[in-house]
Design goal:
The structure is a single chain. This protein has 250 residues and is α/β, with parallel strands linked by helices. It is built from eight helices and nine strands. Strands 1, 2, 3, 4, 5, 6, 7, 8 and 9 form a nine-stranded mixed beta sheet that branches. The N and C termini lie far apart (57 Å).
Protein backbone atom coordinates (compact mmCIF):
# COMPACT_ATOMS: atom_id res chain seq x y z
CA UNK A 1 0.00 0.00 0.00
CA UNK A 2 2.85 2.34 0.87
CA UNK A 3 4.48 1.67 -2.52
CA UNK A 4 1.21 2.36 -4.36
CA UNK A 5 0.77 5.62 -2.45
CA UNK A 6 4.30 6.74 -3.35
CA UNK A 7 3.66 6.00 -7.04
CA UNK A 8 0.38 7.93 -6.89
CA UNK A 9 2.09 10.92 -5.23
CA UNK A 10 4.80 10.92 -7.92
CA UNK A 11 2.17 10.78 -10.67
CA UNK A 12 0.21 13.65 -9.10
CA UNK A 13 3.36 15.78 -8.88
CA UNK A 14 4.23 15.01 -12.51
CA UNK A 15 0.70 15.88 -13.66
CA UNK A 16 0.86 19.18 -11.77
CA UNK A 17 4.26 19.96 -13.29
CA UNK A 18 2.94 19.21 -16.79
CA UNK A 19 -0.01 21.52 -16.19
CA UNK A 20 2.26 24.29 -14.93
CA UNK A 21 4.48 24.02 -18.00
CA UNK A 22 1.58 23.98 -20.44
CA UNK A 23 -0.34 26.68 -18.62
CA UNK A 24 -3.33 24.35 -18.09
CA UNK A 25 -4.81 25.10 -14.68
CA UNK A 26 -7.43 22.40 -15.01
CA UNK A 27 -10.12 25.09 -15.18
CA UNK A 28 -11.49 25.37 -18.69
CA UNK A 29 -13.08 28.71 -19.63
CA UNK A 30 -16.34 28.97 -21.49
CA UNK A 31 -15.88 28.06 -25.15
CA UNK A 32 -15.29 31.10 -27.34
CA UNK A 33 -17.37 31.61 -30.48
CA UNK A 34 -15.71 30.18 -33.59
CA UNK A 35 -16.28 31.99 -36.89
CA UNK A 36 -15.18 30.50 -40.19
CA UNK A 37 -14.58 32.17 -43.55
CA UNK A 38 -14.50 29.71 -46.44
CA UNK A 39 -12.56 30.59 -49.61
CA UNK A 40 -10.73 33.31 -47.68
CA UNK A 41 -8.47 34.46 -50.52
CA UNK A 42 -5.52 36.46 -49.20
CA UNK A 43 -7.13 36.96 -45.81
CA UNK A 44 -7.83 40.70 -45.99
CA UNK A 45 -11.43 40.35 -44.86
CA UNK A 46 -10.93 37.65 -42.21
CA UNK A 47 -8.02 39.47 -40.53
CA UNK A 48 -10.02 42.70 -40.40
CA UNK A 49 -12.97 40.92 -38.76
CA UNK A 50 -10.77 39.10 -36.24
CA UNK A 51 -9.11 42.36 -35.19
CA UNK A 52 -12.55 43.87 -34.64
CA UNK A 53 -13.77 40.82 -32.69
CA UNK A 54 -11.14 39.81 -30.08
CA UNK A 55 -13.67 37.79 -28.07
CA UNK A 56 -14.11 35.25 -30.89
CA UNK A 57 -11.76 32.84 -32.62
CA UNK A 58 -11.63 33.17 -36.40
CA UNK A 59 -10.60 30.58 -38.98
CA UNK A 60 -9.68 31.55 -42.54
CA UNK A 61 -9.93 28.48 -44.79
CA UNK A 62 -8.37 28.56 -48.25
CA UNK A 63 -7.48 25.89 -50.81
CA UNK A 64 -4.39 27.45 -52.40
CA UNK A 65 -1.15 27.15 -50.43
CA UNK A 66 0.19 30.55 -51.48
CA UNK A 67 -2.94 32.23 -50.17
CA UNK A 68 -2.80 30.30 -46.90
CA UNK A 69 0.74 31.65 -46.48
CA UNK A 70 -0.52 35.17 -47.24
CA UNK A 71 -3.27 34.84 -44.63
CA UNK A 72 -0.85 33.60 -41.99
CA UNK A 73 1.70 36.31 -42.78
CA UNK A 74 -0.95 39.03 -42.64
CA UNK A 75 -2.30 37.77 -39.31
CA UNK A 76 1.19 37.66 -37.77
CA UNK A 77 2.25 41.06 -39.11
CA UNK A 78 -0.94 42.68 -37.85
CA UNK A 79 -0.79 40.95 -34.46
CA UNK A 80 -4.07 39.07 -34.95
CA UNK A 81 -3.69 36.35 -32.32
CA UNK A 82 -7.29 35.11 -32.59
CA UNK A 83 -7.10 34.01 -36.23
CA UNK A 84 -6.03 30.63 -37.58
CA UNK A 85 -5.08 30.11 -41.24
CA UNK A 86 -6.15 26.69 -42.52
CA UNK A 87 -5.44 25.07 -45.86
CA UNK A 88 -7.56 22.45 -47.59
CA UNK A 89 -10.62 21.66 -49.64
CA UNK A 90 -13.58 23.15 -47.77
CA UNK A 91 -15.94 20.22 -48.33
CA UNK A 92 -13.35 17.74 -47.03
CA UNK A 93 -12.33 19.95 -44.11
CA UNK A 94 -15.93 20.36 -42.96
CA UNK A 95 -16.49 16.62 -43.16
CA UNK A 96 -13.25 15.46 -41.55
CA UNK A 97 -11.86 18.25 -39.39
CA UNK A 98 -14.73 20.36 -38.07
CA UNK A 99 -16.68 18.99 -35.13
CA UNK A 100 -20.49 19.05 -35.34
CA UNK A 101 -22.09 22.15 -33.77
CA UNK A 102 -18.71 23.81 -33.23
CA UNK A 103 -19.02 26.90 -35.45
CA UNK A 104 -21.03 30.00 -34.62
CA UNK A 105 -21.00 31.67 -38.04
CA UNK A 106 -19.84 30.63 -41.52
CA UNK A 107 -19.03 33.21 -44.21
CA UNK A 108 -18.51 32.75 -47.95
CA UNK A 109 -17.52 35.92 -49.81
CA UNK A 110 -17.51 36.08 -53.62
CA UNK A 111 -17.85 32.34 -54.33
CA UNK A 112 -17.03 31.28 -57.88
CA UNK A 113 -20.24 30.40 -59.77
CA UNK A 114 -20.48 27.31 -62.00
CA UNK A 115 -21.68 29.47 -64.89
CA UNK A 116 -19.11 32.29 -64.73
CA UNK A 117 -18.67 32.08 -68.50
CA UNK A 118 -22.20 33.39 -69.01
CA UNK A 119 -23.39 30.13 -70.53
CA UNK A 120 -26.43 28.88 -68.62
CA UNK A 121 -25.49 25.29 -69.49
CA UNK A 122 -21.89 25.69 -68.35
CA UNK A 123 -20.67 23.33 -65.64
CA UNK A 124 -17.75 23.93 -63.29
CA UNK A 125 -16.55 20.65 -61.84
CA UNK A 126 -14.94 22.54 -58.94
CA UNK A 127 -18.21 24.24 -58.00
CA UNK A 128 -18.27 24.25 -54.20
CA UNK A 129 -21.65 25.51 -53.00
CA UNK A 130 -23.76 22.45 -53.69
CA UNK A 131 -26.64 21.04 -51.60
CA UNK A 132 -24.21 18.49 -50.17
CA UNK A 133 -21.83 21.26 -49.12
CA UNK A 134 -24.59 23.24 -47.41
CA UNK A 135 -25.56 20.12 -45.46
CA UNK A 136 -21.98 19.95 -44.17
CA UNK A 137 -22.17 23.61 -43.18
CA UNK A 138 -25.45 22.92 -41.38
CA UNK A 139 -23.86 20.06 -39.43
CA UNK A 140 -20.89 22.25 -38.41
CA UNK A 141 -23.07 25.12 -37.18
CA UNK A 142 -23.97 25.40 -33.53
CA UNK A 143 -27.61 25.76 -32.50
CA UNK A 144 -28.92 28.96 -34.13
CA UNK A 145 -25.59 29.33 -35.96
CA UNK A 146 -25.60 31.49 -39.07
CA UNK A 147 -24.42 31.42 -42.66
CA UNK A 148 -23.76 34.60 -44.68
CA UNK A 149 -23.20 34.56 -48.44
CA UNK A 150 -21.93 37.68 -50.22
CA UNK A 151 -21.44 38.12 -53.97
CA UNK A 152 -21.56 40.53 -56.91
CA UNK A 153 -23.41 37.97 -59.05
CA UNK A 154 -27.18 38.44 -58.84
CA UNK A 155 -28.01 35.36 -60.86
CA UNK A 156 -25.76 33.10 -58.80
CA UNK A 157 -27.10 34.46 -55.51
CA UNK A 158 -30.64 33.71 -56.66
CA UNK A 159 -29.57 30.14 -57.42
CA UNK A 160 -27.91 29.77 -54.01
CA UNK A 161 -30.94 31.19 -52.20
CA UNK A 162 -33.14 28.71 -54.05
CA UNK A 163 -30.80 25.85 -53.08
CA UNK A 164 -30.91 26.87 -49.41
CA UNK A 165 -34.69 27.17 -49.49
CA UNK A 166 -35.12 23.65 -50.86
CA UNK A 167 -32.90 21.91 -48.31
CA UNK A 168 -34.87 19.95 -45.70
CA UNK A 169 -34.11 17.57 -42.86
CA UNK A 170 -33.63 14.01 -44.04
CA UNK A 171 -32.56 10.70 -42.55
CA UNK A 172 -29.04 11.04 -41.18
CA UNK A 173 -29.31 14.72 -40.28
CA UNK A 174 -29.04 15.72 -36.64
CA UNK A 175 -32.50 15.70 -34.98
CA UNK A 176 -34.08 14.45 -38.19
CA UNK A 177 -36.55 12.31 -36.24
CA UNK A 178 -38.12 15.48 -34.79
CA UNK A 179 -37.70 17.74 -37.84
CA UNK A 180 -38.07 15.40 -40.80
CA UNK A 181 -39.14 17.45 -43.82
CA UNK A 182 -38.60 20.84 -42.15
CA UNK A 183 -36.21 23.39 -43.74
CA UNK A 184 -32.56 23.15 -42.71
CA UNK A 185 -32.19 26.94 -42.73
CA UNK A 186 -34.37 29.90 -41.83
CA UNK A 187 -34.14 33.40 -43.32
CA UNK A 188 -32.77 36.12 -41.06
CA UNK A 189 -33.52 39.85 -41.05
CA UNK A 190 -30.53 42.03 -41.91
CA UNK A 191 -29.63 45.48 -43.19
CA UNK A 192 -27.24 46.68 -45.86
CA UNK A 193 -24.40 48.87 -44.68
CA UNK A 194 -25.01 52.64 -44.85
CA UNK A 195 -28.78 52.24 -45.05
CA UNK A 196 -30.48 55.21 -43.36
CA UNK A 197 -31.65 54.44 -39.83
CA UNK A 198 -35.26 55.26 -40.65
CA UNK A 199 -35.22 53.31 -43.91
CA UNK A 200 -36.65 49.81 -44.26
CA UNK A 201 -34.33 47.18 -45.69
CA UNK A 202 -35.88 45.78 -48.86
CA UNK A 203 -35.12 42.32 -50.14
CA UNK A 204 -36.01 39.86 -52.86
CA UNK A 205 -37.96 36.91 -51.48
CA UNK A 206 -36.75 33.69 -53.05
CA UNK A 207 -38.88 30.82 -51.75
CA UNK A 208 -38.71 32.30 -48.26
CA UNK A 209 -35.02 33.21 -48.34
CA UNK A 210 -34.22 36.93 -48.28
CA UNK A 211 -31.68 38.30 -50.74
CA UNK A 212 -30.58 41.84 -49.97
CA UNK A 213 -28.88 44.29 -52.31
CA UNK A 214 -25.84 46.17 -50.99
CA UNK A 215 -22.87 45.60 -48.70
CA UNK A 216 -23.63 43.44 -45.62
CA UNK A 217 -24.33 45.44 -42.48
CA UNK A 218 -26.28 44.85 -39.28
CA UNK A 219 -27.30 41.24 -38.65
CA UNK A 220 -24.88 39.74 -41.17
CA UNK A 221 -21.83 39.10 -38.99
CA UNK A 222 -19.75 41.49 -41.11
CA UNK A 223 -18.31 43.63 -38.32
CA UNK A 224 -16.25 46.00 -40.44
CA UNK A 225 -16.28 46.63 -44.17
CA UNK A 226 -13.03 45.45 -45.70
CA UNK A 227 -12.62 44.95 -49.42
CA UNK A 228 -11.30 41.51 -50.21
CA UNK A 229 -9.02 40.71 -53.13
CA UNK A 230 -12.04 39.47 -55.07
CA UNK A 231 -14.04 42.59 -54.21
CA UNK A 232 -11.34 44.84 -55.65
CA UNK A 233 -10.87 42.56 -58.66
CA UNK A 234 -14.52 42.68 -59.69
CA UNK A 235 -14.76 46.44 -59.13
CA UNK A 236 -12.05 46.90 -61.75
CA UNK A 237 -14.42 45.28 -64.22
CA UNK A 238 -17.13 47.79 -63.27
CA UNK A 239 -19.11 45.14 -61.40
CA UNK A 240 -20.09 47.16 -58.37
CA UNK A 241 -23.49 45.73 -57.41
CA UNK A 242 -23.45 43.55 -54.30
CA UNK A 243 -25.93 41.02 -52.89
CA UNK A 244 -26.07 39.01 -49.68
CA UNK A 245 -28.08 36.32 -47.94
CA UNK A 246 -28.19 35.51 -44.22
CA UNK A 247 -29.74 32.32 -42.84
CA UNK A 248 -29.68 30.55 -39.51
CA UNK A 249 -29.68 26.89 -38.60
CA UNK A 250 -33.26 25.76 -38.09
Amino acid sequence: KKEKKEKKDKKDKKDKKDRDVSGDTGKHPKTRPVKLEICAGNGDWAVAQAKQDPDSDWVALELRHDRVYSIFSRAVCEGTANLCAMGGDAASVLRRNVAPKSVTHVFVNFPEPPHHSGDAAAVNEFHLLTPSFFRKVHAALDTDGRLTLFSDNHRYMRDLAKTLAELAYAAGDDNYEEKLGEPLFSAEAARPKDLDDDATASFENIQGIRMYKGVPGEGTGHLVHEQSYFDRFWEQGARVERFFVVVSKN
